[in-house]
Specification:
Layout lengths: L1 H25 L19 E2 L12 H16 L12 E20 L3 E19 L5 E15 L4 H28 L3
Parallel strand pairs: 1-2
Antiparallel strand pairs: 2-3, 3-4
Helix pairs in contact: 2-3
Length: 184
């Protein structure tokens, strides 16, 4: 008799497991999509020209442009071409760059020395259909921030700020990619 109950329980567990597997496999309203192709639009080719910026740092615009291009090259199958050959153009410009003190150290009880700072960058970007002139998406309030250490050595501080800039560029590149490919 006990053996018969074990068979009934095992059979019930098997039926429940099979039902759950069937529900999961049948879809549940979700479907997988190849994220290497844009969702909802066709992008036969894309140009990502050099970003503009109010910064006086040499290479600043190149860092941002390189990060965005790298995001598309590594995650999509959309070919990157020159602006005059592209069906779509991704235009971006850095609108604002700020640094703000994050933490201080008091020396000799009288002077405050900044030990770390926030770097905040605001970016405006849009995807433009070059053939029709239609703006596919536009976001002029993309903003990210990162902290960096301030050192008594100005070269070290500059290096730390450059690393923070690249971190922000990477975060913004990911957001631009998602806006273009995933449409959110």
């Amino acid at each position: 008799m006990a053996n018969n109950k074990f068979i009934q329980v095992s059979s019930f567990k098997f039926q429940v497991s099979a039902l759950l597997l069937l529900i999961f496999v049948s879809g549940c309203g979700y479907n997988l999509q190849d994220t290497r192709q844009p969702k909802g639009i066709s992008i036969p080719s894309l140009a990502i020209p050099l970003m503009t910026s109010p910064s006086s740092d040499i290479g600043f615009e190149g860092d941002f442009t390189m990060m965005i291009r790298q995001e598309f090259v590594s995650h999509s199958q959309v070919p990157l071409v020159s602006k005059d050959q592209a069906a779509m153009v991704l235009i971006g410009r850095v609108v604002d760059i700020k640094t703000e003190a994050l933490s201080y150290k008091i020396t000799d009880g009288t002077f405050e020395v900044t030990t770390s700072r926030w770097l905040k960058i605001k970016l405006a970007a849009k995807l433009l259909d070059r053939t029709t002139g239609k703006v596919i998406w536009n976001d002029d309030k993309m903003e990210e921030k990162a902290s960096f250490a301030v050192s008594p050595d100005p070269l070290r501080t500059s290096y730390n700020q450059r690393r923070a800039t690249k971190m922000i560029a990477k975060l913004l590149a990911e957001r631009i990619y998602l806006k273009t490919m995933e449409r959110f």
